[in-house]
Amino acid sequence: MSRKASLQGRQHVKSFEKLGITAAFCLVLVLLLWYDILVKIALIITLLEEQNLDRNDVLISGEALERQREFEKKIQAMFATREAHPAACVDTFGCQQNVADGQQIMGMLETMGFTFTDKPEDADVVILNTCAVREHAEDRVFGNLGALTHTKKANPEQVICLCGCMAQEERVSERVKKSYPHVNLVFGPHALWKFPELLWQVYEKRKRVFSVSDEHGSIAEGIPIVREDGIKAWVSIMYGCNNFCSYCIVPYVRGRERSRDPECVVQEVRSLVEAGYKDITLLGQNVNSYGNDLPTGVDFSELLKKIDAIPGDYLIRFMSSHPKDATHKLFDTMASSTHVARQLHLPFQSGNDRVLKEMNRRYTRAQYTELVTYARSKMPELVITSDVIIGFPGETESEAMDTVSLVKEIGFDALFTFIYSPRPGTKAAAMPDPASREEKQTWFDALLDAQNEHSAAVHKGYIGKTLRCLVDGKSDDEVFPLSARTEGNRLVRFKGDESLIGQFVNIKITDSNTWALYGETDA
Ligand code: SAM
Ligand code: SF4
Ligand code: F3S
User: Fold this and answer.
1) pLDDT for 1 beyond 50
2) Does any ligand 2 atom lie closer than 6 A to the CB of residue 75?
3) Pair (446, 501) in one structural domain
């Protein structure tokens, strides 16, 4: 073989080697890509499975609930030998959903024969029904828990319970286990329906009980409820949240979205209306996704229509609405309804698109303003309120000012404003957060100034008008001793007779400030 031919041969071998290496490399790359795709598919399937809970796993059976009524009877019998009824002090923190849970806890306690007191030192059972949404809320609860060492010392038989969203957090229940030995019972929202059984265990076994297992959550129908007055009522239509906004702890402590059956909701509202309730608020972390997990095809608008068909003189409100799921259909339904109040709580959180994306809110500023414009075109008298967070990790001054500019652009009737609070375990808690507390406070003050100026101007516009209001109780103002709410839920203080409490009356507005309207009625 010539030297040239031998060289060509070696070059061919080298090219084949290169080709082989490249092919192997490509194969590995393809395999890795496939592996990645397969892992992602598996993850999506798991997530979908988690989000669509099996209805049979979610609904607590009639027998299981009946057993709880048996435990209530056992506790009632235990106290029967005592002269006075046992007393309970239930202290609820947080949102209306927690208030509704607190009313169920009171309902179960009442069935056990308990009366209620505001003073922990007078109580046989003290319950702290907690909120985990911001650090400040948690600090308050730990402060209250600490103070209860004194009441427990004075009455060693006192049972102290920690429940609600904080109790569902592992780090909290561990801290209570180690550092608060006077706490007898800890249970999260998932275990609320079996409170009688848990309390019985504390009494019977005389040991500490912790029921905070990590579950998806459940629905328990028919738990007794104590409502504070005969005028306003909270009705949970769904539980949990699937949205995982990056700053928020709620999906971790309240589990996945579970909608109550529409018939159960309609029946509860019907009995409230028949019992004389006038102002009923439907609750959920995102009522606009009501029904997504139901086989019935009843979405939130359909549910509103069914409720609106109940005859009577009453108002229906709802909260909260997530803008990503708020539809024109919802606003059309509100506009054509008889009983749905022209009031909308539509949290926007931030006026800046980058921050909204980081928050995982899944809408833009433009989409939010379009929704408000449409809603107002259908209901010009609509009262709109919102939630806002200032100082999300990485937010700059100019991004915070985008939030202030949105507040001015929309002109909200009222705002619930918060400075971002890191929640351990959430995605945002791990994000860099370079802005100082002082900077955030300055932005927050600018936001409050913008809102207060607007609220005062809107309120002034009501002077001289006569509004139909629901009288909901006494006020702490000596000159204007009664308190009422407009259809849009504005606070009105007015002069009138106590016998009007619980009735709709026409009030002529004579004065106003940033927070309230003042007036008189000829009724
Ligand atoms: N589900 C409702 C929604 O998305 O509109 C909100 C319910 S959340 C319990 C009430 C409000 O608390 C939120 O709208 C948000 O403004 C605020 N919030 C939640 N997590 C927060 C955090 N980590 N720091 C400050 N505010 C927070
Ligand atoms: Fe929290 Fe977002 Fe769910 Fe509201 S929608 S409860 S802010 S995660
Ligand atoms: Fe409500 Fe607080 Fe839980 S806002 S859902 S009580 S974390």
Assistant:
1) no
2) no
3) no
Rounded to 5°, angle at Cα 266 from 262 and 268: 120
In this predicted model, what pLDDT tens digit does every residue of 394-410 receive, in sequence order? 999 999 999 999 999 99
* Model confidence at 316: pLDDT above 50: yes
Same domain? 277 vs 375: yes
**Residue 18 counted as domain residue:** no
**CA-131 nearest atom, ligand 1:** 9
Query: What are 5-56's pLDDT values in tens digits?
Result: 555 555 555 665 666 666 776 676 666 667 666 655 555 444 545 556 688 8
Per-residue pLDDT reduced to its tens digit, 482-503? 999 999 999 999 999 999 999 9
For ligand 3, whether the C-beta of 168 sits within 6 Å is no
Residue 99 Cβ contacting ligand 3 at under 6 Å: no
Q: What is the pLDDT of residue 57?
A: 85
Nearest of 162, 174, 158, 160 to residue 92 by alpha carbon: 162
Shortest-distance ligand to the CA of residue 418:
1
Percent helix, strand, coil in the chain, to 5, is: 45, 20, 35
Q: Dihedral of CA 8/14/17/21: which sign?
A: negative
Asked if 359 and 299 sit in the same domain, the reply is: yes
Pocket test residue of 254, 322, 418 for ligand 1, highest count of atoms within 8 A of CB: 418
Identify whether residues 180 and 269 lie together within a single domain: no
Structurally, the chain folds into a number of domains equal to: 4
- Rounded Cα distance, 521 and 343, in Å: 23
Would residue 227 count as lying in a domain?
no
Centre of ligand 1 to C-alpha 356, Å, is 13
Shared domain for 270 and 398, answered yes or no, is: yes
Q: What is the CATH number of the domain that holds 513?
A: 2.40.50.140
In a domain, 405, yes or no: yes
Q: In terms of Cα–Cα distance, which of 203, 254, 247 is closest to 100? A: 254
Print the domain residue range for 157.
Answer: 62-211
In whole angstroms, give the CA distance from residue 366 to residue 369: 5
**Which pLDDT does position 217 carry in this prediction?**
86
Shared domain check, 66 and 52: no
Across all residues in the chain, what is the average pLDDT? 93
Quick check: is 329 in a domain? yes
